[in-house]
Amino acid sequence: MINHQSESDQGKTKSISDHSLVKSHTQSIKDIDLSVYRWAILLLYYLVVLVNGVPYEICVPISSFTAHIYNVTLALVATASTVFMVMHPILSFVAAQTISNYGWASATNLGVILTIAGCAIKLLINQAGFLVLLIGQVLCGIGRPFILNSQASMAMSWFHPKTRIMIITLLNVVNTLSLVISAQLPGIIFKGYNLYDDPDYEDGRSRMQSLCLLEFYISLAIVPSLLMLRSRPKEVPVKINKIERKGGMLKIMLRLFKNRNFVLLFIPFSLYFGILKAYLVIMELLMAPYNYKTDQVAGVVSFPLIGGLIAQGAFPYFVNKYQIQKPFVRLFLLSSTLAMGSLYFALQSNNVIYIYIVITLLAMCVMPILPVIMDMGCDLISPIEPSFAVGAFYMGSMLFFVAFTYILTFITGKNKEDTRVLYTNIFSTIVLIIGLLCSLFLRIDNQYYALDVEQDKSSLVHPLEKNESILKDNCPFIYRGTQSKMSIQHQKGSMFSCSHYNISIVGDVPLIPGEEAEDLLDSEQQQ
After folding, report:
1. Do 129 and 260 have their domain in common?
2. Beta bridge partners of residue 489, listed in sequence order
3. What CATH number did the domain enclosing 221 receive?
4. Which of 13, 79, 117, 140 is deepest in the core (most CB within 10 A)?
Protein backbone atom coordinates (compact mmCIF):
# COMPACT_ATOMS: atom_id res chain seq x y z
CA MET A 1 0.00 0.00 0.00
CA ILE A 2 2.86 2.35 0.84
CA ASN A 3 4.54 1.58 -2.48
CA HIS A 4 1.27 2.20 -4.28
CA GLN A 5 0.91 5.57 -2.51
CA SER A 6 4.51 6.47 -3.33
CA GLU A 7 3.96 5.64 -7.00
CA SER A 8 0.80 7.73 -6.95
CA ASP A 9 2.64 10.71 -5.44
CA GLN A 10 5.44 10.32 -7.97
CA GLY A 11 2.85 10.30 -10.72
CA LYS A 12 1.39 13.54 -9.39
CA THR A 13 4.83 15.03 -9.22
CA LYS A 14 5.58 14.00 -12.79
CA SER A 15 2.29 15.42 -14.02
CA ILE A 16 3.10 18.68 -12.27
CA SER A 17 6.57 19.01 -13.73
CA ASP A 18 5.51 17.92 -17.21
CA HIS A 19 2.76 20.50 -17.64
CA SER A 20 3.43 24.00 -18.93
CA LEU A 21 0.47 25.78 -17.36
CA VAL A 22 -0.01 27.50 -14.04
CA LYS A 23 -3.56 27.26 -12.79
CA SER A 24 -5.43 29.56 -10.48
CA HIS A 25 -8.28 27.52 -8.99
CA THR A 26 -9.42 25.36 -11.93
CA GLN A 27 -8.76 27.83 -14.72
CA SER A 28 -5.40 28.13 -16.45
CA ILE A 29 -3.78 31.32 -17.67
CA LYS A 30 -3.57 29.91 -21.16
CA ASP A 31 -7.33 29.32 -21.26
CA ILE A 32 -8.08 33.00 -20.62
CA ASP A 33 -8.16 35.24 -23.66
CA LEU A 34 -6.48 38.46 -22.62
CA SER A 35 -8.68 41.43 -23.37
CA VAL A 36 -7.74 43.56 -26.38
CA TYR A 37 -8.75 46.54 -24.25
CA ARG A 38 -5.56 46.01 -22.25
CA TRP A 39 -3.62 47.96 -24.90
CA ALA A 40 -5.90 50.97 -24.44
CA ILE A 41 -5.38 50.66 -20.69
CA LEU A 42 -1.61 50.50 -21.15
CA LEU A 43 -1.47 53.55 -23.45
CA LEU A 44 -3.71 55.59 -21.15
CA TYR A 45 -1.62 54.68 -18.13
CA TYR A 46 1.64 55.56 -19.88
CA LEU A 47 0.12 58.88 -20.95
CA VAL A 48 -0.86 59.61 -17.34
CA VAL A 49 2.71 58.87 -16.16
CA LEU A 50 4.15 61.07 -18.91
CA VAL A 51 1.87 64.04 -18.15
CA ASN A 52 2.32 63.80 -14.38
CA GLY A 53 6.11 64.15 -14.73
CA VAL A 54 5.97 67.28 -16.92
CA PRO A 55 5.51 69.83 -14.05
CA TYR A 56 8.60 68.58 -12.18
CA GLU A 57 11.25 71.01 -13.53
CA ILE A 58 8.97 73.93 -14.36
CA CYS A 59 11.38 76.39 -12.72
CA VAL A 60 14.76 74.65 -12.81
CA PRO A 61 16.09 75.94 -16.18
CA ILE A 62 14.69 79.44 -15.53
CA SER A 63 15.33 79.70 -11.78
CA SER A 64 17.22 83.00 -11.97
CA PHE A 65 14.53 84.55 -14.20
CA THR A 66 11.76 83.37 -11.87
CA ALA A 67 13.51 84.71 -8.77
CA HIS A 68 13.77 88.20 -10.30
CA ILE A 69 10.32 88.26 -11.90
CA TYR A 70 8.46 87.30 -8.71
CA ASN A 71 10.96 88.80 -6.22
CA VAL A 72 11.68 85.55 -4.37
CA THR A 73 14.88 83.78 -3.37
CA LEU A 74 16.56 81.10 -5.46
CA ALA A 75 16.05 78.67 -2.57
CA LEU A 76 12.28 79.19 -2.76
CA VAL A 77 12.34 78.68 -6.53
CA ALA A 78 14.25 75.41 -6.06
CA THR A 79 11.59 74.35 -3.56
CA ALA A 80 9.09 74.12 -6.44
CA SER A 81 10.89 71.03 -7.75
CA THR A 82 11.77 69.66 -4.33
CA VAL A 83 8.19 69.56 -3.02
CA PHE A 84 7.10 67.76 -6.17
CA MET A 85 9.54 64.89 -5.55
CA VAL A 86 9.32 64.83 -1.75
CA MET A 87 5.60 64.00 -1.86
CA HIS A 88 6.37 60.57 -3.29
CA PRO A 89 8.38 59.10 -0.39
CA ILE A 90 6.07 60.74 2.16
CA LEU A 91 2.87 59.31 0.68
CA SER A 92 4.22 56.15 -0.94
CA PHE A 93 2.71 53.66 1.50
CA VAL A 94 -0.52 55.65 1.78
CA ALA A 95 -0.85 55.34 -1.99
CA ALA A 96 -0.09 51.61 -1.84
CA GLN A 97 -2.80 51.12 0.78
CA THR A 98 -5.25 53.07 -1.37
CA ILE A 99 -4.43 50.86 -4.35
CA SER A 100 -4.94 47.79 -2.19
CA ASN A 101 -8.30 48.97 -0.85
CA TYR A 102 -9.88 50.61 -3.89
CA GLY A 103 -8.03 49.25 -6.93
CA TRP A 104 -5.25 50.69 -9.05
CA ALA A 105 -7.58 52.49 -11.48
CA SER A 106 -9.27 54.48 -8.71
CA ALA A 107 -5.90 55.40 -7.21
CA THR A 108 -4.53 56.44 -10.61
CA ASN A 109 -7.60 58.57 -11.31
CA LEU A 110 -7.08 60.30 -7.97
CA GLY A 111 -3.57 61.14 -9.15
CA VAL A 112 -5.01 62.40 -12.45
CA ILE A 113 -7.43 64.74 -10.66
CA LEU A 114 -4.65 66.09 -8.44
CA THR A 115 -2.37 66.63 -11.46
CA ILE A 116 -5.01 68.56 -13.39
CA ALA A 117 -5.98 70.57 -10.30
CA GLY A 118 -2.34 71.44 -9.63
CA CYS A 119 -1.77 72.63 -13.19
CA ALA A 120 -5.01 74.64 -13.09
CA ILE A 121 -4.10 76.43 -9.84
CA LYS A 122 -0.76 77.52 -11.28
CA LEU A 123 -2.63 79.62 -13.85
CA LEU A 124 -3.22 82.15 -11.05
CA ILE A 125 0.49 82.80 -10.52
CA ASN A 126 0.39 86.39 -11.83
CA GLN A 127 -2.67 87.23 -9.77
CA ALA A 128 -1.81 85.49 -6.47
CA GLY A 129 2.00 85.31 -6.56
CA PHE A 130 4.64 82.59 -6.58
CA LEU A 131 3.08 80.77 -3.62
CA VAL A 132 0.29 79.56 -5.91
CA LEU A 133 2.86 77.78 -8.08
CA LEU A 134 4.20 75.98 -5.01
CA ILE A 135 0.69 74.83 -4.08
CA GLY A 136 0.17 73.53 -7.60
CA GLN A 137 3.49 71.64 -7.46
CA VAL A 138 2.48 70.07 -4.15
CA LEU A 139 -0.81 68.83 -5.64
CA CYS A 140 0.95 67.37 -8.68
CA GLY A 141 3.52 65.75 -6.38
CA ILE A 142 0.81 64.23 -4.17
CA GLY A 143 -0.73 62.60 -7.22
CA ARG A 144 2.57 61.05 -8.30
CA PRO A 145 2.73 58.05 -5.88
CA PHE A 146 -0.90 57.16 -6.60
CA ILE A 147 0.03 56.94 -10.28
CA LEU A 148 3.50 55.36 -10.25
CA ASN A 149 2.79 52.83 -7.50
CA SER A 150 -0.05 51.35 -9.58
CA GLN A 151 2.20 49.96 -12.30
CA ALA A 152 2.64 46.40 -10.98
CA SER A 153 -1.05 46.04 -10.14
CA MET A 154 -2.04 47.28 -13.58
CA ALA A 155 0.35 44.86 -15.27
CA MET A 156 -0.83 41.84 -13.30
CA SER A 157 -4.51 42.68 -13.76
CA TRP A 158 -4.42 42.97 -17.54
CA PHE A 159 -1.35 41.10 -18.77
CA HIS A 160 0.31 37.72 -18.48
CA PRO A 161 2.59 37.52 -15.41
CA LYS A 162 5.74 37.16 -17.52
CA THR A 163 5.12 40.50 -19.26
CA ARG A 164 5.26 42.55 -16.06
CA ILE A 165 9.00 43.22 -16.28
CA MET A 166 8.63 44.63 -19.81
CA ILE A 167 5.74 46.85 -18.79
CA ILE A 168 7.70 48.20 -15.82
CA THR A 169 10.71 48.71 -18.10
CA LEU A 170 8.73 50.75 -20.61
CA LEU A 171 7.16 52.70 -17.78
CA ASN A 172 10.60 53.70 -16.49
CA VAL A 173 11.50 54.86 -20.01
CA VAL A 174 8.29 56.94 -20.18
CA ASN A 175 8.96 58.33 -16.71
CA THR A 176 12.48 59.40 -17.67
CA LEU A 177 11.18 60.87 -20.92
CA SER A 178 8.67 62.99 -18.98
CA LEU A 179 11.50 64.50 -16.95
CA VAL A 180 13.40 65.31 -20.16
CA ILE A 181 10.30 67.07 -21.55
CA SER A 182 9.89 68.87 -18.24
CA ALA A 183 13.40 70.30 -18.51
CA GLN A 184 12.91 71.41 -22.13
CA LEU A 185 9.57 73.27 -21.96
CA PRO A 186 10.72 76.24 -19.80
CA GLY A 187 13.72 76.79 -22.08
CA ILE A 188 11.48 76.82 -25.14
CA ILE A 189 9.03 79.35 -23.66
CA PHE A 190 11.79 81.63 -22.31
CA LYS A 191 14.06 81.35 -25.35
CA GLY A 192 15.59 84.75 -26.13
CA TYR A 193 14.35 86.31 -22.91
CA ASN A 194 16.63 88.92 -21.29
CA LEU A 195 16.05 90.46 -17.87
CA TYR A 196 17.75 93.71 -18.89
CA ASP A 197 15.28 94.21 -21.73
CA ASP A 198 12.32 93.73 -19.41
CA PRO A 199 12.68 96.16 -16.46
CA ASP A 200 9.04 95.79 -15.38
CA TYR A 201 9.07 92.02 -15.92
CA GLU A 202 5.85 92.21 -17.94
CA ASP A 203 7.25 89.99 -20.67
CA GLY A 204 8.60 87.54 -18.08
CA ARG A 205 5.23 87.29 -16.34
CA SER A 206 3.53 86.77 -19.68
CA ARG A 207 5.93 83.97 -20.59
CA MET A 208 5.43 82.28 -17.22
CA GLN A 209 1.67 82.49 -17.72
CA SER A 210 2.13 80.87 -21.15
CA LEU A 211 4.25 78.10 -19.59
CA CYS A 212 1.61 77.35 -16.96
CA LEU A 213 -1.13 77.45 -19.59
CA LEU A 214 0.81 74.99 -21.77
CA GLU A 215 1.17 72.60 -18.82
CA PHE A 216 -2.57 72.90 -18.13
CA TYR A 217 -3.43 72.04 -21.75
CA ILE A 218 -1.08 69.05 -21.57
CA SER A 219 -2.78 67.89 -18.36
CA LEU A 220 -6.17 67.88 -20.12
CA ALA A 221 -4.86 65.06 -22.33
CA ILE A 222 -5.34 62.62 -19.43
CA VAL A 223 -9.00 63.48 -18.79
CA PRO A 224 -10.17 60.41 -20.81
CA SER A 225 -8.48 58.15 -18.26
CA LEU A 226 -11.10 59.19 -15.71
CA LEU A 227 -13.71 57.44 -17.84
CA MET A 228 -11.74 54.65 -19.49
CA LEU A 229 -9.41 53.15 -16.85
CA ARG A 230 -10.60 49.89 -15.30
CA SER A 231 -8.93 47.96 -12.50
CA ARG A 232 -9.53 44.60 -14.15
CA PRO A 233 -11.07 42.91 -17.18
CA LYS A 234 -13.92 40.43 -16.99
CA GLU A 235 -11.41 37.62 -16.78
CA VAL A 236 -8.14 38.36 -15.03
CA PRO A 237 -5.00 36.36 -15.91
CA VAL A 238 -5.01 34.90 -12.40
CA LYS A 239 -7.57 34.60 -9.64
CA ILE A 240 -7.46 37.44 -7.16
CA ASN A 241 -6.17 36.77 -3.68
CA LYS A 242 -7.20 39.17 -0.93
CA ILE A 243 -5.41 37.61 1.98
CA GLU A 244 -3.69 40.89 2.90
CA ARG A 245 -6.83 43.05 2.92
CA LYS A 246 -7.19 42.70 6.71
CA GLY A 247 -3.66 43.88 7.43
CA GLY A 248 -3.06 47.50 8.32
CA MET A 249 -0.50 49.65 6.56
CA LEU A 250 1.97 49.62 9.46
CA LYS A 251 1.74 45.86 9.75
CA ILE A 252 2.35 45.45 6.02
CA MET A 253 5.33 47.81 6.14
CA LEU A 254 6.87 45.77 8.96
CA ARG A 255 6.35 42.54 7.05
CA LEU A 256 7.86 44.11 3.98
CA PHE A 257 11.15 44.97 5.66
CA LYS A 258 11.32 41.73 7.60
CA ASN A 259 11.74 39.98 4.26
CA ARG A 260 15.51 39.51 4.07
CA ASN A 261 15.70 39.15 0.31
CA PHE A 262 13.51 42.19 -0.26
CA VAL A 263 15.77 44.32 1.95
CA LEU A 264 18.80 43.06 0.03
CA LEU A 265 17.15 44.34 -3.15
CA PHE A 266 15.87 47.56 -1.58
CA ILE A 267 19.34 48.69 -0.48
CA PRO A 268 21.14 48.55 -3.87
CA PHE A 269 18.10 49.99 -5.69
CA SER A 270 17.96 52.98 -3.34
CA LEU A 271 21.71 53.54 -3.18
CA TYR A 272 22.46 53.26 -6.89
CA PHE A 273 19.46 55.17 -8.21
CA GLY A 274 19.73 57.81 -5.48
CA ILE A 275 23.42 58.48 -6.05
CA LEU A 276 23.04 58.56 -9.86
CA LYS A 277 20.37 61.26 -9.62
CA ALA A 278 22.41 63.17 -7.05
CA TYR A 279 25.46 63.12 -9.35
CA LEU A 280 23.47 64.61 -12.21
CA VAL A 281 22.41 67.44 -9.88
CA ILE A 282 25.90 68.26 -8.55
CA MET A 283 27.80 67.59 -11.81
CA GLU A 284 28.51 71.31 -12.25
CA LEU A 285 30.27 71.38 -8.85
CA LEU A 286 32.29 68.28 -9.71
CA MET A 287 33.46 69.75 -13.02
CA ALA A 288 34.11 73.27 -11.67
CA PRO A 289 37.77 72.68 -10.57
CA TYR A 290 38.72 71.65 -14.12
CA ASN A 291 37.29 74.69 -15.96
CA TYR A 292 34.86 72.90 -18.25
CA LYS A 293 32.52 75.03 -20.35
CA THR A 294 28.80 75.36 -19.69
CA ASP A 295 27.79 73.44 -22.82
CA GLN A 296 30.15 70.61 -21.82
CA VAL A 297 28.52 70.39 -18.40
CA ALA A 298 25.09 70.29 -20.06
CA GLY A 299 26.27 67.47 -22.31
CA VAL A 300 27.56 65.44 -19.37
CA VAL A 301 24.12 65.72 -17.75
CA SER A 302 22.20 64.91 -20.95
CA PHE A 303 24.22 61.96 -22.30
CA PRO A 304 23.51 59.66 -19.32
CA LEU A 305 19.76 60.16 -19.75
CA ILE A 306 19.94 59.26 -23.43
CA GLY A 307 22.18 56.25 -22.81
CA GLY A 308 20.07 55.15 -19.87
CA LEU A 309 16.89 55.32 -21.94
CA ILE A 310 18.42 53.13 -24.65
CA ALA A 311 19.80 50.59 -22.20
CA GLN A 312 16.62 50.56 -20.15
CA GLY A 313 14.57 49.75 -23.20
CA ALA A 314 16.85 46.98 -24.50
CA PHE A 315 18.52 44.97 -21.73
CA PRO A 316 15.50 43.94 -19.60
CA TYR A 317 13.98 42.27 -22.67
CA PHE A 318 16.87 39.79 -22.82
CA VAL A 319 16.81 39.36 -19.05
CA ASN A 320 13.15 38.42 -19.22
CA LYS A 321 13.70 36.13 -22.21
CA TYR A 322 16.62 34.15 -20.78
CA GLN A 323 15.64 34.42 -17.09
CA ILE A 324 18.97 35.70 -15.80
CA GLN A 325 17.70 38.24 -13.26
CA LYS A 326 20.17 37.69 -10.46
CA PRO A 327 23.38 37.44 -12.56
CA PHE A 328 22.24 40.46 -14.59
CA VAL A 329 21.71 42.59 -11.48
CA ARG A 330 25.06 41.61 -10.00
CA LEU A 331 26.99 42.14 -13.23
CA PHE A 332 25.52 45.59 -13.85
CA LEU A 333 25.96 46.64 -10.22
CA LEU A 334 29.64 45.67 -10.51
CA SER A 335 30.02 47.50 -13.84
CA SER A 336 28.41 50.68 -12.51
CA THR A 337 30.64 50.55 -9.41
CA LEU A 338 33.74 50.33 -11.62
CA ALA A 339 32.44 53.23 -13.73
CA MET A 340 31.92 55.32 -10.61
CA GLY A 341 35.43 54.51 -9.41
CA SER A 342 36.93 55.76 -12.67
CA LEU A 343 34.87 58.96 -12.87
CA TYR A 344 37.41 61.03 -10.91
CA PHE A 345 40.17 60.14 -13.38
CA ALA A 346 37.87 61.08 -16.26
CA LEU A 347 37.15 64.48 -14.70
CA GLN A 348 40.83 65.08 -14.02
CA SER A 349 41.82 64.21 -17.58
CA ASN A 350 40.07 67.27 -19.08
CA ASN A 351 38.93 64.95 -21.86
CA VAL A 352 35.21 65.55 -22.42
CA ILE A 353 34.77 62.41 -24.55
CA TYR A 354 36.27 60.31 -21.73
CA ILE A 355 33.81 61.87 -19.27
CA TYR A 356 30.88 61.27 -21.61
CA ILE A 357 31.82 57.60 -21.92
CA VAL A 358 32.23 57.02 -18.16
CA ILE A 359 29.10 58.88 -17.01
CA THR A 360 27.00 57.32 -19.80
CA LEU A 361 28.31 53.86 -18.90
CA LEU A 362 27.35 54.54 -15.29
CA ALA A 363 23.78 55.42 -16.29
CA MET A 364 23.54 52.53 -18.77
CA CYS A 365 24.47 50.09 -16.01
CA VAL A 366 22.25 51.56 -13.29
CA MET A 367 19.00 52.35 -15.11
CA PRO A 368 18.33 48.91 -16.72
CA ILE A 369 18.51 47.10 -13.38
CA LEU A 370 15.77 49.25 -11.85
CA PRO A 371 12.77 47.52 -13.52
CA VAL A 372 14.40 44.12 -13.03
CA ILE A 373 14.81 44.71 -9.29
CA MET A 374 11.24 46.03 -9.10
CA ASP A 375 9.94 42.88 -10.75
CA MET A 376 11.90 40.65 -8.38
CA GLY A 377 10.72 42.69 -5.40
CA CYS A 378 7.07 42.30 -6.38
CA ASP A 379 7.50 38.52 -6.33
CA LEU A 380 9.37 38.50 -3.05
CA ILE A 381 6.73 40.25 -0.94
CA SER A 382 3.89 37.94 -1.91
CA PRO A 383 1.08 37.83 -0.94
CA ILE A 384 1.37 41.53 -0.13
CA GLU A 385 -0.01 43.81 -2.86
CA PRO A 386 2.83 44.56 -5.34
CA SER A 387 2.22 48.32 -5.19
CA PHE A 388 3.84 48.25 -1.74
CA ALA A 389 7.08 46.97 -3.28
CA VAL A 390 7.03 49.61 -6.02
CA GLY A 391 6.26 52.31 -3.46
CA ALA A 392 9.06 51.17 -1.18
CA PHE A 393 11.62 51.24 -4.00
CA TYR A 394 10.60 54.73 -5.12
CA MET A 395 10.52 55.96 -1.54
CA GLY A 396 14.02 54.65 -0.83
CA SER A 397 15.51 56.08 -4.01
CA MET A 398 13.96 59.53 -3.42
CA LEU A 399 15.10 59.68 0.21
CA PHE A 400 18.65 58.66 -0.69
CA PHE A 401 18.62 61.08 -3.62
CA VAL A 402 17.86 63.99 -1.30
CA ALA A 403 20.35 62.78 1.32
CA PHE A 404 23.14 62.18 -1.21
CA THR A 405 22.56 65.56 -2.85
CA TYR A 406 23.26 67.37 0.42
CA ILE A 407 26.08 65.03 1.50
CA LEU A 408 27.91 65.14 -1.83
CA THR A 409 27.46 68.91 -2.10
CA PHE A 410 28.98 69.29 1.37
CA ILE A 411 31.93 67.01 0.57
CA THR A 412 32.63 68.64 -2.80
CA GLY A 413 32.34 72.18 -1.46
CA LYS A 414 32.23 75.38 -3.49
CA ASN A 415 35.95 76.19 -3.49
CA LYS A 416 36.70 74.22 -6.66
CA GLU A 417 39.27 71.91 -5.06
CA ASP A 418 40.48 68.79 -6.84
CA THR A 419 41.02 66.96 -3.54
CA ARG A 420 37.39 67.47 -2.51
CA VAL A 421 36.22 65.97 -5.79
CA LEU A 422 38.40 62.92 -5.07
CA TYR A 423 36.82 62.55 -1.60
CA THR A 424 33.36 62.75 -3.17
CA ASN A 425 34.24 60.04 -5.66
CA ILE A 426 35.72 57.76 -2.97
CA PHE A 427 32.62 58.17 -0.78
CA SER A 428 30.30 57.43 -3.73
CA THR A 429 32.27 54.33 -4.74
CA ILE A 430 32.16 52.96 -1.19
CA VAL A 431 28.39 53.48 -1.11
CA LEU A 432 27.99 51.53 -4.35
CA ILE A 433 30.24 48.73 -3.06
CA ILE A 434 27.87 48.37 -0.09
CA GLY A 435 24.95 47.94 -2.48
CA LEU A 436 26.92 45.40 -4.53
CA LEU A 437 27.78 43.37 -1.43
CA CYS A 438 24.09 43.25 -0.47
CA SER A 439 23.26 41.71 -3.85
CA LEU A 440 25.78 38.91 -3.25
CA PHE A 441 23.72 37.63 -0.31
CA LEU A 442 20.52 37.27 -2.33
CA ARG A 443 19.04 33.79 -2.31
CA ILE A 444 16.64 33.92 -5.22
CA ASP A 445 15.87 31.42 -7.94
CA ASN A 446 16.28 33.14 -11.31
CA GLN A 447 14.39 30.69 -13.45
CA TYR A 448 10.72 30.31 -14.28
CA TYR A 449 9.60 26.73 -13.99
CA ALA A 450 6.27 25.38 -15.16
CA LEU A 451 3.75 23.92 -12.75
CA ASP A 452 0.20 22.67 -12.90
CA VAL A 453 -1.17 23.55 -9.50
CA GLU A 454 -4.41 24.03 -7.68
CA GLN A 455 -5.45 26.55 -5.06
CA ASP A 456 -4.99 25.93 -1.39
CA LYS A 457 -4.99 28.06 1.73
CA SER A 458 -2.02 26.96 3.78
CA SER A 459 1.15 28.48 5.13
CA LEU A 460 2.59 31.48 3.30
CA VAL A 461 6.00 31.08 1.72
CA HIS A 462 7.92 33.42 -0.56
CA PRO A 463 8.19 31.71 -3.97
CA LEU A 464 11.59 33.15 -4.80
CA GLU A 465 13.39 32.15 -1.63
CA LYS A 466 15.54 29.05 -1.77
CA ASN A 467 16.27 26.68 1.06
CA GLU A 468 19.22 24.37 1.56
CA SER A 469 16.82 21.43 1.76
CA ILE A 470 15.81 21.80 -1.91
CA LEU A 471 16.37 18.57 -3.81
CA LYS A 472 15.71 19.38 -7.46
CA ASP A 473 16.17 15.78 -8.53
CA ASN A 474 13.35 14.60 -6.30
CA CYS A 475 11.14 17.64 -6.05
CA PRO A 476 9.00 19.48 -8.57
CA PHE A 477 10.41 22.77 -9.78
CA ILE A 478 8.95 26.08 -8.80
CA TYR A 479 7.47 28.57 -11.21
CA ARG A 480 8.95 31.93 -10.24
CA GLY A 481 6.37 34.68 -9.96
CA THR A 482 3.27 32.62 -10.74
CA GLN A 483 1.11 35.36 -9.20
CA SER A 484 -1.32 32.89 -7.67
CA LYS A 485 -1.64 31.04 -4.42
CA MET A 486 -0.63 27.47 -5.05
CA SER A 487 0.09 24.24 -3.32
CA ILE A 488 1.63 20.98 -4.47
CA GLN A 489 1.65 17.59 -2.83
CA HIS A 490 4.95 15.80 -2.54
CA GLN A 491 6.04 13.06 -0.21
CA LYS A 492 9.85 13.07 -0.41
CA GLY A 493 10.66 16.22 1.48
CA SER A 494 9.96 19.86 2.09
CA MET A 495 11.37 22.47 -0.27
CA PHE A 496 10.46 25.41 1.92
CA SER A 497 10.48 23.80 5.39
CA CYS A 498 6.71 23.44 5.36
CA SER A 499 4.70 20.41 6.32
CA HIS A 500 5.95 17.05 5.11
CA TYR A 501 3.17 16.45 2.63
CA ASN A 502 2.08 19.95 1.72
CA ILE A 503 4.10 22.77 0.17
CA SER A 504 2.46 26.16 -0.28
CA ILE A 505 3.49 28.92 -2.63
CA VAL A 506 1.80 32.27 -2.52
CA GLY A 507 2.10 34.65 -5.46
CA ASP A 508 1.85 38.42 -5.47
CA VAL A 509 -1.46 39.24 -7.10
CA PRO A 510 -3.11 42.66 -7.23
CA LEU A 511 -5.80 43.13 -4.63
CA ILE A 512 -8.78 44.31 -6.64
CA PRO A 513 -12.09 45.23 -4.98
CA GLY A 514 -15.15 43.30 -5.97
CA GLU A 515 -13.60 39.88 -6.43
CA GLU A 516 -12.81 37.71 -3.44
CA ALA A 517 -10.81 34.51 -3.76
CA GLU A 518 -12.77 31.40 -2.99
CA ASP A 519 -12.14 30.08 0.47
CA LEU A 520 -11.56 26.44 -0.25
CA LEU A 521 -11.22 25.47 3.40
CA ASP A 522 -14.59 26.96 4.21
CA SER A 523 -16.22 25.22 1.24
CA GLU A 524 -14.71 21.90 2.29
CA GLN A 525 -15.96 22.33 5.84
CA GLN A 526 -19.46 23.08 4.59
CA GLN A 527 -19.43 19.87 2.57
Report:
1. no
2. 502
3. 1.20.1250.20
4. 140
